[in-house]
C-alpha cells in the first residue's frame, strides 16, 4: 500500500474518477489542481497549484510515493497553453520526483494522439513509431520521452498510458475501437501500482473492444486484462450517430477528429 | 444500409447461406448464378449470368453498392474451368465495379488454398507469403492481386476472405483448425460492410477454434470476433474419422488434401 | 491411443500427477524412476533405472510409442548431478528412442530456467534467445538442442515444454505470471499426443494467467488452450507473501530466485 | 553446364541480350519467339511459337534443362493480350516443364510492377506483400504464384526475378534506383544456374545503385553481387531530364509511370 | 536548384561548414544566427534572430524553399536554455514554415542523444524506440515529433538527421562508431534536397565506419552512401586516448558521456 | 594490451594460427594442449592439460585476462569424446574463469554446426533458432548457453564465434558460402579483445563471401569487417570439385556433410 498518492488534475473528469475510486491504494490521497477540489475527505489532502509554477509543483510532489498525473492540458489548444501545462509542467513534475525524499512511481496520462496519424487499418503496439496529430499529441511524445529519460538516468518508473476515449460510454463509431471504460482505467492503475517491477512501459488505454486497434501483449507482466467492451453499445451508436464516410478523418486515423484540427492560434 | 447487394454464386452452399441471412444488410438483394436460383423473394432480384461473359457481368454489377462474390470455381479443376471462372470471371467483375455508376465494396471469397503449402506447424498472418497448393489456389492469389490493384488505382475496397473449411460442422481433423461456421461467416460479412473504412485487407475465415492456425490480429479494426469453436466437435470426429498419420498431406499442410492433388487435365 | 506410454520420474510430483491422470492415453503405462513407485496398478509396468545407466535406459525406452520425460534433476544442483541426470541421462534416453523398434513421440520437461535471465518486463516466445539462469537451465538448453537434432536427423518428434511453476496453487508473486496448474499440464500432454503432426515445438508451460509472460501463439496448431488463471489466488498471495522489491531477482527476471543462486559446488 | 537452354522472347531486347551472352551456359541454346530470330548460329536452335498455343509450347520446352523465360507481354496492355501471353502462356510453359522428360530450372522474368504501388520511401524485400500496379503487374503476381506451386508440388525450381529498369543506361530519376545493367542481369542468370540448390526465390533485379530500393539479402546464397551503379549517370540525367515533382507517380511509387496508367481497353 | 536556402545556426561549427559548402544548392543562401556571421558574401543574406522570438523567426523563414536547421542548443544545458532554443524555437520555425508563401523542405539537426540510452551492443534503426539521454535528447525527441506532425498535417517534408559525432576527425573510442565526417554530412544534405519525394525520414548521421552502430537501410531511396570511415583513425586514437573500461558510460551507451550528465540546474 | 592470453587447443590448426599471429595482443601467451606444443618461444608459456581434468584446467586458466578457446573436440565423434572435451571441458574452463584472480574475456570457438540443419536457402543471424546437426553441434549449443549464463550471472564476457570453414582456401562449393580465411579470423579476435564493452555476442565466422549465408549486422559494434572473399576461388573449385546435386546435404543445409553423419558409436 502506498503512503501518499498524488492525483493531479483531480478536478477533471478522469481525476475525479481516480479520486473516487483509488482510495484503497494509499494511506493518504493528495489531490492537486488549480481550483475546484471542494472539501477534503478523510485521508485526503488538497493542494492548489499551477503546473507551470516549478516551486509549487516540487512542493506538491515532495513525499509522494505514487503519482497519477491526470493534470495538464487534455485537448488541442494554442501553443502557450500546451507548452505551459504539458511541457514546462511535466518537467516540473519530474524534477519534483527527482528531488523528492521518496522516489515515486508515476502514471502518466499520455494519449492516443501521440500516434494519431497512423491509419486505422494499421494495428499498433508499443514499438510503433509515434505520429502525433497536433500540438497536444506532440506534447505527449515529449512527455513519454521525458519519462524514459528519468527512468534510464534516475530510476524513476513511469507507466505512460496512451488513453483512448475515456468516457462513461462510447459515443461514436471511432470509440467502438478506442473506448476505455472508467472501471478498466481504475483497474489498470491498480495493476500499475501492484506490479513489483514496473520499468517504463507504454500501455494503450482501451477496453477489451471487439474492434480494438492496439496491442498490449508486450505488457502482459502488468497483469491488466480489461473487461469492458464497447461492442455492447454498437446498436445504440448506429441508431444515434451518423456513420462517418470512409474519407473522414474519423474513419481514417487513430486520432480521429484531432487529425483534422488546424493549429490553434492564440 | 446498402441500396443493392449483389451475391454471386447464390445457388452454391455459401451463396445460399448468404441469401438466407444477409437480407438486413440491403434494401435489395441481387442474386447471381448460372442457374438454379428458384423464385425471387420480396426485395430479391435474380440475374442469370456466366462469369466469363464480360457484358453480362458488367450489367449484373451495375448499380450495386455491395458485392459478396461467392461465384466462380470453388475447388480444384482443369485449367480452362479455373481460368474462365476465377481469372477471366474476376477480371470481368472488377471491370464492372470500375465502370459502375456506384462504387461497390466487395467481399471476395478467397481461400486458404492461396497459402496451402505452408506447414501446419507454422502460424500464418496476412503478411505471410502466399504458397498456393494448386491451380485453384493460384487463381486466388491472382484474385487477391487484382483486388489490391483495383484498390490502389481506383479506390475500390475489397475484403479478401481466405475461407477455411466452411461447412455446417467440422468433419475431419484438419477442420478442427480450419473450420468456419456459417454464423461466423455471416457475422464477418456484416462487419465488413459496417466498418466506415475498409481498405483492402486479407482476412482468414476461420472460427474461434482452439487449434486455429491463422492470426487475424492485424484486422482488429473490422471488429469481427468469431464465436464458434470446432473443439466442440472433437470427440465426434475422433470417434468417426481415422486420425491421419503425421506424413499425410492432411496433417502436414494448411491446404490439406489439395496439396496432394495432381493437375486436373481436361 | 498409444500402445505403451513411458513416464519417467514417475515418483516425483509431476510424474505422479501424470501417473494418476494419463491412463486414458495408452493401453499400458510404463513407469520409470530410481525408486519409490509402489505397486503397479492394472495396465502399469514398473521399471527401476538410473538415467545415467545407458543400457538400462535403452531397455526402459524400448517398445514405447510415447514418452513423458519428467525424470532427471529438477532444480539447481552441483555439476556432477546435473550432468549425470540431465545431460548423460537425456542422451541415453534419445539413443534409446533412436534404437527402439518403435519411434516414440516425446514430451520433454524443459524449463523456464532455459530463458530465466530475460527481464520480466520483456515478453518471450519460442523464438526468443535462450538465457539460462544456472547449470540446471543450461542443461535444459542442451536438452532442447538434443531434441532438435534427433528430430531433424532421425524424425523423432519432441515437444519441449518450458514448465513455469507447476504446483497445486501459485504461492508467490512471480507465480502469478508463471503458474501452471496440474490440470492444464495434463491437458497439454493430451494435446501433444493427439495432434497428428507434432514436429519439434517449444511450448511455454503456463496457465491462462492474467499476468502471463509467455506467448504460445506459434503453437496454436497443438490445440491447447489453458483454462486456469493464477489471478484467482492474487488476494491470498498478497495477504500472505511479502511483495518483493523491484530490485529483487524475484521481480526482475523470468527465472526468479534461480537467477540469484551461485554455482552449487560439490 | 546445361545440355539445352531455352530462351523465350529471344527477339526482344532482353532476350537478345541473353542470346548474345549466355552461350557458355549450355551446349545448345534453343531460341523461342513468335518471329524475328534471324538465322541460327552454331549451337542454336530456333523455334517459332505463340505462348498461347499449348501444344507448341510443350514441344518447345521438351528436353530443356534450363529456361530463361523472357517471353510474354512486357508492358501494360489490354486484358486479352496480357491474359493470352502471361497467364495462359505461363501455364503452358509450366505444363511443358512438368511433362518434360527432363526437369528444367527456370528463370522467370517477373517485374517490379508486382510491387509497384508501394511508396518509394518504403524499402522492400522478398517478403513484402505484393501490390501490383496494373494488369501487367497482376499477371506477374499470378506468375510468381504459379512458380511457387509448381515448386512445392512438382519440385520445379524457379527464380522469379523482379526486374527493375533493364536498359543500356538509366534514363530518368526513378531509374537511379531501379536500373539493372545488362551485365548484372547476365551475371545474375549465371549465378541462378550455378547454385546447386535454387529453391524458388524472389530476387529483385537491380544493380548496385546508391539509391536502391530493394533488399536482396535473403538470397545471398545465390552469390550474386551486382557491380554496376546508376549513380554514375546521375549528372547526365539531372542535366537532361526534368526532375519529377514530389506528387508525381514517378516520385511516389516503386512502379513509377505504370501506377498512373488506366486499364487498357481493347 | 533551390531559390533560397536558409541555414540557421550559421555561426556554429556545422553551420559554418554548411555555409562554406552548400552554395551550389541555391541561388541565395540566407544565414541565420544570433551573432557572429561576419560579412555577407555574394548570394548570401544575413539575418540576426533569436529562435525564441516568434515574429523574427517567422520573418527569417518566409520565402525560403529549403532550410538546414543547425540552430538551437547543441549540448546539454539547463532547462530554460533547452526549452527556449529547441522547443519554443523549433515550434517558431515550423510555424514560420507553415505560414510561409513557399513550402520549404527542412533538414532538422536531430541527434544520437534521442536514442542515447540504448546499449552499444544493440544495433538501431529508424524504428527503434527513442531513449533520450538528457534534456537535450528529450528536446530532439520533441523535434522529431513536431516534424512528423507538420508533415502529416501540412505536408512539410523534413529529414531528421540524428547526427553522431560530427568533427574534423574522430577523437575517442566511441567516435570510431559514431563519427560523421564533414564531407559525408554535406553529401547527405545534398541528397536530401535532390530526392524528388523526401517524406519525413529519420536518418542516422554517421560515416561508413567499420564499427558503426546504426542502420540506414530503410532510407536507401535518399541515395546517400557515406564514404569516410573512422577506422582510418583507430591507431591514432588508441595511441593517444585511454580506452574506456567496459563499465564506463562511454563504452556502454550510444549516447556516451551524455548518459552520465546530471540535470543542469540554472 | 592483455597481460596473459591463454590459447587452448594450441596444437591444432586454428590454435597454431593463433599462436603465430596473436603475439601483439598480450605480454605473455599461455599455450594449452594435451601434447605437441614444441618449445616455448619468448613470451610463451606451455601448459599440458586435458580439458576433462578440472583441477588442471582451473590452474591453466588462473591469471589469464584473455582466453581464445580453440580446444576441445572439433568434429563429430562418439558421445564420450564430445562430452569429455566439449561439455565437461567447457564447464571446467568457465569454472576456472569464475574462480580466477582476474576476470578473463573469452573467445569461444563455437561452430556453424550449432545451426547446421537450417536450409541454405534461408539466411541466418544471431537470433535465428539453433538447429544443431549432430552431437558436436549440440555440444556447441550447450557451450553458447554456458557462456550466456556465466555472463548474466558472473559478468564474464564471451564472444561465441560460429566458425564456418576455416581453412587456407575454400575447397568445395559449400565453402564458397562458409569460408573463413585465417586472416579474417585473426582480425576478428583482435577486434573482440579491443572493443571496450563486449557483452556476450554470437558472431558468424565467415569471410566477406559473395555467396555468404550469415548476417553479422547486429554485431557491428565489434568493428570487424572481413576482407577476404571465397569467390576468388570459384573457378578453381568448379574446375576440380564436382558440383553437388540439389538433393545432397552439401547443397541443402548450412551444416553440409555433418547433416548426413549418423551418431558415432564407440
Walk me through this protein's architecture.
6 copies of one chain form a homohexamer. Chain A is α/β, with parallel strands linked by helices. The first copy, chain A, has one domain (2-260): Rossmann fold, CATH 3.40.50.720. Helices cover 32% and strands 18% of the residues of chain A. The first copy, chain A, has 8 helices and 11 strands. Chain A has helices at residues 13-21, 54-61, 79-99, 135-154, 175-178, 182-194, 234-240, 249-252, and strands at residues 2-8, 26-33, 44-48, 66-69, 105-111, 124-125, 158-163, 165-166, 179-180, 202-205, 214-215. Chain A has a 7-stranded parallel sheet, with helices on both faces. The first copy, chain A, has a two-stranded parallel ribbon with strand order 6-11. The first copy, chain A, has a two-stranded parallel sheet with strand order 8-9. In chain A, helix 3 (79-99) links the parallel strand 4 and strand 5 (105-111). In chain A, helix 2 (54-61) packs across helix 3 and helix 3 packs parallel to helix 4. The first copy, chain A, is globular, with a radius of gyration of 18 Å. Chains in contact: A-B, A-C, A-E, B-C, B-D, C-F, D-E, D-F, E-F. The A-E interface holds A 79, 83, 87-88, 91, 95, 98, 114, 117, 126-127, 129-135, 137-138, 141-142, 145-146, 148-149, 152-153, 259, 263 and E 79, 83, 87-88, 91, 95, 98, 114, 117, 126-127, 129-135, 137-138, 141-142, 145-146, 148-149, 152-153, 259, 263.
